[in-house]
Amino acid sequence: MHDLARRLGLRTNPLIFFWSAGLMLLILALLLMFPVPIGAAFTAGREWITFNLGWFFVIGVTAWLVFLVWAAFSRYGNLKLGAEGDKPEFTNLSWFAMLFAGGIGTVLMFWGVAEPISHFTSPPFEGVEPYSGQAAQDAMAFSMYHLSLHTWAIFTLPGLAFGFFIYRYKLPMRVSSVFYPLLGQKIHGPIGRTIDIFAVLGTLFGLAVSVGLGTSQISAGISAMTGLADSTELRVGVVLIIALVATWSVASGLDRGIKRLSNINILAAIGLMLFVLFVGETVFLLRQMIESVGIYATQIIPLSFWNDALSTYTEADGWGWQAGWTVFYWAWTVTWAPYMGVFLARISRGRTVREFVVGVLVAPAAFTVVWFVIFGWSAMAADGIGGEGGPISAAVAESVPLAMFAFFEQFPLSTVVSGIAIIIVMLFLITSADSASLVVDMLCTGKGEMSPLRQRVFWALSLGGLAAALLLLGGDTAIEALQEVITVIGLPIFILVCGMLVALLVGFRREVPPRTAVVSGHLREQPTEVDAPSREVVSGDAPEGSGDPADAPDEPAVAQVGPPADPPEPPSDVRGPGKPPPSE
């Protein structure tokens, strides 16, 4: 594989790159050749997972959120993502703006109206009348639960793990590096490679599902504005345009222009939100801004543990409402974990654990609440709270991606606003695909710098091809097909992120070991902070630009040079340059 990588001019880990690319192309070919049996297999897999492991997803994400809050306010909160002398690269304002850009743009555009209206029309709880005031409050509670703190906990945990182990231990920028406290040097062997290959594939599928959902919304908007049929062909055509533009962006090296375009896009989305606030029922929305925070605060704990257990006896399929919503959300979101983990770690170096957790959880979650209050309550009010439903719920019943455009029809300049919304969604998808090609390639190379152009172009085209294949697999029921695929793919990634929590616990304790004190004749452990064991990278890489992966080991040897957490070894076994530390 090294010889093949050299002939192709690649600078990557050949094993991870070729296995990931080969499996992805194999899955892509199978999806196109055998859509019916593969679709049936994903359907069966989703049914088994939601029935038997839905509870695991629900309690897992809640446990991650509790762990993050504990970590931020424990004695480990002062540890830095990086060396002790590292300073944050970005101001707080710039950092918060990038947090918004990284993870929630397309999601909020798609679900901002669709989810509240869906729950408003079909209440999750038994005995609640559709379109009632109680249905509206429950719809808002579920929407904020699904896309606020819990969603960002799924992003924050891997981001914290990446930043902590990669920058403090100077390990390769790969998912396997997070498991160094558990696996030691095995992260550089078959186990580590397997973890990295699964992470790359999961990330590709997660991003492809996001592109597929965004594409469904764009095609629905085009259909509503032009009268064209909202067909599979139109969706695939939109995906191909997005993939080609993203590839052109990667190939042209327009990184600065794309970042500027991304910032403009964020401002446009905020402008759209303010338009709805001030043109719509402003006073009602401001009152709901306060009330909805209270609804969220009172409902977050019961919803965090509710997993629809009685559906075993009350539903024919045995797994109930939550399988199509909460379990799908967590399975889908967790496939973004490697992508968002790398992104968050890269922009957060030099911040403390406490700064990172509070910033990444609170700022985006607060914006999400504001977004749902403005779009969700406006949509439910326009549809008729206490009535029999209206045009927005009728549109959602016909096609979920139509929700945003049916909502804009209730406002002046609806065609113009809908056109702007289509452009915003498309630009979010293009910039996400552009960034994703870089991050996926980093997960293969293990390095933070730019790789050869051909590698990033390959991943950009692969992402588009995979999204198109998933849409073809789903046909007219693309949304349901995407839900089935991502629930199955998300399970192994979910298990990996659970392992990240354990690795962080072990890493924290090694950085801040307990101190033993004698109290009343008994030994008692007391916490004490010590400087983290500093680690330096012993250079062994090939000269820059050599292009020969065989001459450039992608895992630099790591030598421990600071005060070790374990008892010191005898002087006769001092580690020299190039000799790695023992496996933990």
UniProtKB/TrEMBL annotation:
Keyword entries, A-Z: Cell membrane, Membrane, Transmembrane, Transmembrane helix, Transport
Transmembrane stretches, start-end: 12-34, 54-73, 93-114, 149-167, 195-214, 234-254, 266-286, 327-344, 356-377, 411-430, 457-479, 485-506
InterPro entries: BCCT_transptr
Keyword Electron transport: no
Region of interest: Disordered: 519-584
Record's bilayer topology term: Multi-pass membrane protein
Entry's localization field: Cell membrane
Family: Belongs to the BCCT transporter (TC 2.A.15) family.
Protein known as: BCCT family transporter
Organism (species): Pseudonocardia kongjuensis
